[in-house]
Amino acid sequence: MTRIAVAIMVHSLEQGLAAAARAAEHGADLVEFRVDQFADPANLPQIVELVERSALPCILTCRPTWEGGLYDGDDQTRISLLEHIGLAKRPPAYIDVEFVAYQRSANLRQKVGLVVDHPEQVRPVSTGLILSSHDFDRRPTDLLQRVEAMASAPACRVMKIVWKARSLRDNLEAFELLAAKHKPTIALCMGEEGLASRVLAKKFGALLTFAALDAQSGTAPGQPAVAQLKGLYRWDRIGPATKVYGVIGHPVGHSMSPAIHNAGFDAVENGFDGVYLPLPIPPEYEHFKATVGAWLDEPGLHFRGASVTIPHKENLLRFAREWAPAGKEPAANTIEPLAELIGAANTLSVRDDGSLFVCNTDYAAALDAVCAGLGIGRPGLAGRRVAVIGAGGAARAIVAGFAQHGASVVVYNRTIEKAQALAERFAGLPGKVVAAAMEKLCDSCCEVFINCTPVGMHPKVDQTPVPAELRPGNKPGAKADGKVGWGPQTLVFDTIYNPVQTQLLRDAREAGCKTITGVEMFVRQAAAQFELWTGKKAPVEVFRGVLAKKLGGG
Ligand code: NAP
After folding, report:
1. End of a domain among 206, 233, 260?
2. Does residue 310 carry a pLDDT above 90?
3. Active site residues per annotation
4. DSSP code of 98?
5. Mean pLDDT score across all residues of the chain
6. How many Å apart are CA 435 and CA 293, to the nearest integer?
7. Which of 22, 359, 403, 455 could covalently link to 429 via disulfide, CB atoms 3.0 to 4.6 Å apart?
């Protein structure tokens, strides 16, 4: 069973012991005491005491600066440390020694040989030797040779190989090393792109993964906190058959999708055997194609779907047109026709036969949120007058969705040419689409207003795309003829969800309008993805709860 080791940088006996106790409370299985800055000869008895009194079994490591650690002393002190450990009543479960140092120094090898368990050990010792290799900059060119050399060292009980991921594809190599292991193995990738190797270490049977005690105290880039690993990423539920999902974008660190989908996997009846990760891929199509293709081609990974966000929504469509599942043609993939017309998709689902289904749940979420607000079904949208403010990616999906359902759409945009381009693009749909300059908004007789611009988004929360002079019916001298003007018959929908209650929505409520927040759209687009992947009804109240916690006030 793969265990979680919390890495603790030791500064004093008491601090180290307290941190180990907290790691135990958080549910860690082991601690790694990093004594890089505490390995002064005078402290050696305290290190022995730290190991003996630790709340959890431990790995003892004194990592030198030349291997990415903080110890800048000589090897003699490290050797003395080993001698002290050999005398301890309760020795560490493991000691970690860099493979380079182990190879280089016969003296170190001999001292290590005295304190660890190995085939020729005559003394009754239980400590295992972890031989480790780290590269903080790149994948080492001799990665496989290093692994082989470590594996063939007789005293080595565990091989540990860690490197900085160049891309998500490096995780696959870490999984291959775990699958091919000759000895218990730790294979991890550092950095944001390496998170999958840390979370999925359990899926691939690693000896352990490392976690930080909290968000501030990691000892390597990309190390998640233990609470995050166990809570957000559902560590205890991960097994060899766990299906993998994620949000593909650039950047994705801020995304709330992992929190809601993982909570959803937990919340459905009997749980769903899945885990959802942030999946950063650089913007260019070539990166998208190489990475998503490699993840799909790895059968043991069970990569079954993804939410796809900026800047990859167009790339996803192209990929579905070009990529062929094993033994099939790209034509085996299905692209939702409206997603094709919109020119962007946000959802990837891998079907049981390996082919892809690609669709756009953004427009459907907006349509259904508006229908719920108006108390009608989708057929009731025919003939409704809808004002869309903005002409970017979100507007494109929303305009297409409403026009497809027969609504008349007016696109108001700062750059009129972009609004006109949208009107032309969707000219063949059942509902009419026309373009208008922003200044014309005050004359609008639409009954639904949808903001698809980022105006009013955090941190500029007091801005609104519809200032008083543009508010329909608010123009000085305008006739209050009942047709133009915001009131109880009007629905105002802001696609922005941070903040939840935007200035636009506050103004609309003051004018007596019905309102819909961007959270509603976000929850609905995620729910449609969840249902597609799991075949289970999405726990939307759980999604709402997670978002409310993250975003504050509803
Ligand atoms: P986008 O492609 O960059 O388009 C932004 C649009 O807003 C453009 O038409 C742009 O006008 C207009 N705009 C930008 N700044 C403006 C300003 N200061 N004044 C007037 N117009 C301005 O962005 P997008 O992908 O469509 O996203 C737009 C918003 O939709 C995002 O901010 C996000 O909050 C929201 N969204 C929400 C969800 C959800 O699930 N709730 C999903 C997707 C998007 P020009 O054409 O003149 O540049």
Report:
1. 233
2. yes
3. 134, 160, 313, 362
4. E
5. 95
6. 39
7. 403
pLDDT score of 480 more than 70 = no
Q: Which domain holds residue 130?
A: 3-233
- Same domain? 45 vs 130: yes
User: Tokens at residue 151, please?
Assistant: 């594996």
Residues 354 and 380 in one domain: no
Give the tens place of pLDDT for each residue, 147-187.
999 999 999 999 999 999 999 999 999 999 999 877 999 99
- Based on the structure, what is the number of domains in the chain? 3
- 478 CA distance to ligand 1 middle (Å): 29
User: To 10 degrees, what angle do helices 44-53 and 75-87 make?
Assistant: 50
The atom of ligand 1 lying closest to the CA of 390 is 9
Q: Look at ligand 1, atom 25, and give the residue with the nearest C-alpha.
A: 393
As a whole number of Å, the end-to-end CA separation of the chain is 42
| Residue closest to 496 by CA, chosen among 520, 471, 528 | 520
Mutation to probe ligand 1, out of 250, 452, 515 (largest number of atoms < 8 A from CB): 452
Distance, in Å, from the CA atom of 157 to the CA atom of 322, rounded to the nearest integer, reads: 45
pLDDT band at 478 (very low <50, low <70, confident <90, very high): low
* Arithmetic mean of pLDDT, 475-493: 77
Residue 376: pLDDT over 80: yes
Average pLDDT over residues 123-137: 95
Q: Ligand 1 center to residue 408 CA distance, Å?
A: 21
Residue type for 188, please? Answer: L
Q: Which of 312, 420, 495, 522 to mutate to test the pocket of ligand 1 (most atoms within 8 A of CB)?
A: 495
Please compute the mean of the pLDDT values over residues 509-527 and round it to a whole number: 97
Alpha-carbon distance of 99 to 78, in angstroms, equals: 14
Distance 492 CA to ligand 1 centre (A): 16
Residues 188 and 309 in one domain: no
φ, ψ dihedrals at 141, nearest 5°: -65, -30
Burial of 528-554, coded b for 16+ CB within 10 Å and e otherwise, reads bbbebbbeeebbbebbbebbeeebeee
241 in any annotated domain = no
Q: Do residue 224 and residue 138 come from a single domain? A: yes
The last residue of one of the domains, among 233, 261, 276, is 233
pLDDT given at position 482: 56
Does 369 map to a domain?
no
Instruction: Give residue-wise pLDDT tens across range 136-156.
Output: 999 999 999 999 999 999 999
